[in-house]
Specification:
By secondary structure, this protein is α/β, with parallel strands linked by helices. It has a single domain (about 35-160), classed as Hypothetical Protein Ychn, Chain: A (3-Layer(aba) Sandwich), CATH 3.40.1260. About 25% of the residues lie in helices and about 15% in strands. Strand 3 (about 110-115), helix 3 and strand 4 (about 135-140) form a beta-alpha-beta unit.
Protein backbone atom coordinates (compact mmCIF):
# COMPACT_ATOMS: atom_id res chain seq x y z
CA UNK A 1 0.00 0.00 0.00
CA UNK A 2 1.31 3.43 -0.99
CA UNK A 3 0.81 6.40 1.28
CA UNK A 4 0.07 9.84 -0.10
CA UNK A 5 3.30 11.87 0.02
CA UNK A 6 2.29 15.28 -1.31
CA UNK A 7 -0.49 17.68 -0.33
CA UNK A 8 -1.39 20.34 -2.87
CA UNK A 9 -3.66 23.18 -1.83
CA UNK A 10 -7.10 23.08 -3.40
CA UNK A 11 -7.89 25.76 -5.93
CA UNK A 12 -9.96 28.58 -4.47
CA UNK A 13 -12.57 30.67 -6.22
CA UNK A 14 -10.79 33.47 -8.07
CA UNK A 15 -7.51 31.56 -8.45
CA UNK A 16 -6.15 31.91 -12.00
CA UNK A 17 -5.03 28.47 -13.16
CA UNK A 18 -4.44 29.18 -16.84
CA UNK A 19 -2.42 31.62 -18.90
CA UNK A 20 -5.16 33.57 -20.64
CA UNK A 21 -2.74 36.16 -22.04
CA UNK A 22 -1.09 33.80 -24.53
CA UNK A 23 -2.78 33.53 -27.93
CA UNK A 24 -1.27 31.06 -30.39
CA UNK A 25 -3.06 32.08 -33.58
CA UNK A 26 -3.51 35.59 -35.02
CA UNK A 27 -6.72 37.48 -34.19
CA UNK A 28 -8.30 37.41 -37.63
CA UNK A 29 -10.86 40.09 -38.43
CA UNK A 30 -13.11 40.01 -41.49
CA UNK A 31 -12.09 41.98 -44.51
CA UNK A 32 -14.84 44.10 -46.10
CA UNK A 33 -17.54 41.90 -47.62
CA UNK A 34 -16.40 38.60 -46.09
CA UNK A 35 -19.20 36.23 -45.15
CA UNK A 36 -19.73 33.27 -42.85
CA UNK A 37 -22.46 30.66 -43.07
CA UNK A 38 -23.24 28.53 -40.03
CA UNK A 39 -25.34 25.44 -40.75
CA UNK A 40 -26.96 23.87 -37.69
CA UNK A 41 -28.77 20.52 -37.72
CA UNK A 42 -28.94 19.85 -34.00
CA UNK A 43 -31.50 19.01 -31.34
CA UNK A 44 -31.63 21.90 -28.86
CA UNK A 45 -30.38 20.84 -25.41
CA UNK A 46 -29.28 17.37 -26.55
CA UNK A 47 -25.76 18.66 -26.17
CA UNK A 48 -23.91 21.94 -26.26
CA UNK A 49 -23.31 21.98 -30.02
CA UNK A 50 -26.14 24.33 -30.99
CA UNK A 51 -25.36 26.85 -28.25
CA UNK A 52 -21.62 26.72 -29.01
CA UNK A 53 -22.39 27.35 -32.70
CA UNK A 54 -24.54 30.36 -31.80
CA UNK A 55 -21.79 31.74 -29.56
CA UNK A 56 -19.26 31.13 -32.35
CA UNK A 57 -21.61 32.89 -34.76
CA UNK A 58 -21.73 35.86 -32.40
CA UNK A 59 -17.94 35.95 -32.33
CA UNK A 60 -17.81 35.78 -36.14
CA UNK A 61 -20.27 38.69 -36.33
CA UNK A 62 -18.18 40.73 -33.90
CA UNK A 63 -15.09 40.01 -36.01
CA UNK A 64 -16.90 41.75 -38.87
CA UNK A 65 -18.25 38.81 -40.91
CA UNK A 66 -21.65 39.02 -42.59
CA UNK A 67 -23.17 36.02 -40.79
CA UNK A 68 -26.01 33.80 -42.05
CA UNK A 69 -27.28 30.97 -39.85
CA UNK A 70 -29.20 28.15 -41.51
CA UNK A 71 -31.36 26.13 -39.10
CA UNK A 72 -32.68 22.89 -40.50
CA UNK A 73 -33.86 19.56 -39.17
CA UNK A 74 -34.33 19.69 -35.41
CA UNK A 75 -32.43 22.99 -35.19
CA UNK A 76 -35.55 24.89 -36.30
CA UNK A 77 -36.78 24.38 -32.72
CA UNK A 78 -34.09 26.84 -31.60
CA UNK A 79 -36.07 29.59 -33.36
CA UNK A 80 -39.40 28.83 -31.70
CA UNK A 81 -41.00 31.91 -30.19
CA UNK A 82 -43.40 29.72 -28.20
CA UNK A 83 -40.79 28.15 -25.90
CA UNK A 84 -40.94 28.59 -22.17
CA UNK A 85 -42.43 27.12 -19.02
CA UNK A 86 -44.79 27.62 -17.26
CA UNK A 87 -45.53 30.35 -19.79
CA UNK A 88 -44.09 31.46 -23.12
CA UNK A 89 -40.87 33.37 -22.55
CA UNK A 90 -40.37 32.12 -18.97
CA UNK A 91 -37.33 30.01 -18.17
CA UNK A 92 -38.25 26.66 -16.63
CA UNK A 93 -34.66 26.51 -15.38
CA UNK A 94 -31.73 28.95 -15.64
CA UNK A 95 -30.49 28.97 -19.22
CA UNK A 96 -33.62 27.31 -20.59
CA UNK A 97 -34.02 30.05 -23.21
CA UNK A 98 -30.32 30.70 -23.80
CA UNK A 99 -30.48 29.74 -27.48
CA UNK A 100 -33.55 31.90 -28.14
CA UNK A 101 -31.81 34.81 -26.43
CA UNK A 102 -28.62 34.27 -28.45
CA UNK A 103 -30.58 34.29 -31.72
CA UNK A 104 -32.00 37.67 -30.71
CA UNK A 105 -28.50 38.97 -29.89
CA UNK A 106 -27.29 37.79 -33.29
CA UNK A 107 -30.14 39.46 -35.15
CA UNK A 108 -29.71 42.67 -33.12
CA UNK A 109 -26.05 42.66 -34.22
CA UNK A 110 -26.90 42.15 -37.90
CA UNK A 111 -26.87 38.39 -38.49
CA UNK A 112 -29.49 36.74 -40.70
CA UNK A 113 -31.26 33.64 -39.36
CA UNK A 114 -33.09 31.16 -41.58
CA UNK A 115 -35.35 28.23 -40.56
CA UNK A 116 -36.47 25.40 -42.84
CA UNK A 117 -40.22 25.22 -43.49
CA UNK A 118 -40.11 21.44 -44.08
CA UNK A 119 -38.60 20.74 -40.68
CA UNK A 120 -41.01 23.17 -39.02
CA UNK A 121 -44.13 21.67 -40.57
CA UNK A 122 -43.43 18.04 -41.44
CA UNK A 123 -41.32 17.19 -38.40
CA UNK A 124 -42.59 19.43 -35.59
CA UNK A 125 -45.97 20.91 -36.56
CA UNK A 126 -44.50 24.36 -36.05
CA UNK A 127 -46.01 27.30 -37.94
CA UNK A 128 -44.09 30.18 -39.50
CA UNK A 129 -45.97 32.39 -37.06
CA UNK A 130 -44.24 30.45 -34.25
CA UNK A 131 -40.80 31.74 -35.27
CA UNK A 132 -38.96 34.37 -33.28
CA UNK A 133 -39.60 37.70 -34.97
CA UNK A 134 -36.92 38.37 -37.57
CA UNK A 135 -36.16 34.70 -38.37
CA UNK A 136 -36.80 34.02 -42.06
CA UNK A 137 -38.51 30.77 -43.07
CA UNK A 138 -37.11 29.14 -46.20
CA UNK A 139 -37.93 26.39 -48.70
CA UNK A 140 -36.26 23.04 -47.95
CA UNK A 141 -34.64 23.16 -51.40
CA UNK A 142 -32.69 26.17 -50.09
CA UNK A 143 -30.65 23.98 -47.70
CA UNK A 144 -28.44 22.86 -50.58
CA UNK A 145 -28.62 26.19 -52.39
CA UNK A 146 -27.53 28.09 -49.27
CA UNK A 147 -24.48 25.82 -49.01
CA UNK A 148 -23.75 26.33 -52.71
CA UNK A 149 -24.16 30.09 -52.26
CA UNK A 150 -21.63 30.01 -49.41
CA UNK A 151 -19.24 27.96 -51.54
CA UNK A 152 -19.63 30.24 -54.57
CA UNK A 153 -19.07 33.34 -52.42
CA UNK A 154 -15.96 31.75 -50.85
CA UNK A 155 -17.53 32.23 -47.42
CA UNK A 156 -16.30 30.59 -44.25
CA UNK A 157 -18.57 27.64 -43.45
CA UNK A 158 -19.26 25.88 -40.18
CA UNK A 159 -21.41 22.76 -40.47
CA UNK A 160 -22.66 20.78 -37.48
CA UNK A 161 -24.86 17.73 -37.34
CA UNK A 162 -26.14 15.91 -34.31
CA UNK A 163 -28.66 13.12 -34.37
Amino acid sequence: MTTKTNDIARAQEGDVLYDTSEKVFPDIQAEPGEKAFVFIHSVPFEGSVALVNLLTSTRLRRKGFDVSIVLYGPAVLIASATRGYPAVGKEGFPGNLSMNKQLKVLMDEGATIYACRFAMGALYGMREDDLIEGVKAFNPLDVLDSALTAWREKAFQLNTWTV
